[in-house]
Amino acid sequence: MANNNQSVHGIWRNRWIFILAATGSAVGLGNIWKFPYITGEHGGGAFVLMYLACIALVGIPVMVAEVAMGRRGRQSPINTMISLISEAKAGPAWKAIGWMGALAGFLILSFYSVIAGWALSYVLKLAAGTFVGADQALAGDQFSDMLGDPSGLMMWHTIFMVLTAGVIMRGVNKGIESAIQVLMPLLFVLLLVLIGYAAKNGNFAEAVHFMFDADFSKLSAESVLVALGHAFFTLSLGMGAIMAYGAYMPRQASIGTTVFAIAGLDTLVALLAGLAIFPIVFANGLEPSAGPGLLFVSLPLAFGNMAGGQFFGALFFILVTFAAWSSAISLIEPATAWAVERFKTSRVKATIGIAFIIWFLGIGTVFSFNDWSDYVFFAKTPDGIELFAVMSELKAMYPTAVDTLKGLTFFDLLDFITANIMLPLGGLLIALFVGFGMKYHHVYNEMQVKTPLFFNIWYVVLRFITPIAIGIVFIQGLLPECSFDSELLDADSGVCSNAPYLQPRLIGGVIIAIVYVGIIVKSLKKPARGLAE
User: Which of 169, 266, 411, 493 could bond to 26 as cystine, CB 3.0-4.6 Å?
Assistant: First the structure.
């Protein structure tokens, strides 16, 4: 029978609210620029098919597992794991799933808020006509000047955190639910309006060709890795958000069909974003390069030189802000829910406390682009790795190696730790815990499936295919870049610039493989588990 625990934070009014909320969590800045770009670069329609296969093998299985865990526990991810571990009589080490998820969302929001603040500032820049008639130099200078102004970045970071906290402190129903019901429909409306504008004023045919022509010759081993990685990260997995939202899911809602709807909407938003962006890019002879350069230099330049660009450019950055806002709401919820439960305090007080800590941590990201840009972690030098260094001093010590000196700023470090370590590791542990740690009948009953065949297929994929795929994503994210790009090798020595990292990363991969095999072997020794309990 199903678990009938009730969340102290509230329950989504219906299944579609949960779908909108989870889609809002999944749709973020990456959907607006990254997915359309990697689709075009890796074979268009051929890559979309590869990506959908990866979603089926990685994204959907883990998301179903995370939602099921959240709905069974009905608490914050941290306390949900404590409850599920007790129920399954599993080892206490599994608590790491809850803590790591909440901490990952916490750390990500600290720098995500700063970057979302850039979009907010560009709404005003476009609306004020800053880019009307602009050239490449002016567009680049505007972006550089913004990054070089810590007081301005701090202001927009603060405004965005206040907007996010303002939703969370009102609770699940009055806050998150009400905001999502407005934000997500508006996001789709804005996308459609911008697609109409792009079709009229841009090169729509070339954009469709770039994104959807199935060129299987462009598919490679790297394409598979890119599809695997994006399939995992695009659904906000491993950061506690989906588990927290799952805790508020109505009991009668089907987890499987709901997750399929979320994955479909997330992919649809990414494809529509491409149809809104790339016609404008191609019509202006711009390169569809990924990253901040596309959003904050190329597109403002394009809008500034198109009819109606002042209005539609501002509209575009409102769209970007909405996407970031809906994601930010989900990132802060796990930590806020835990604070309410742990300290028995009001949601308002918990939100203010958590939001302030995140805002304070975000100051490090603000200064990473200006005053602290010279201070780096894990700097690579001809003599090895410096754990912490001042880049200007390193350049003075190694004047002939300036081009090869690299390091991570405070922002880079947070981004690397969360994206390359915490999220894939969290997703891997979720798959292993639900697949091997929880009792079979608890998982089956929580799913409330009508067709056991579909459950069994999902269960096999989750246990024996998904962990391997996530492990590949995990190791690929840690390996040196030149493992996949020969151009990054040193021309003279043939040595990868990241070679000092290679050995410990491979050792980590071997350890993960051994642990996985050990869990499987231990699981196979257990007696058959029925559905009676």
Answer: 266
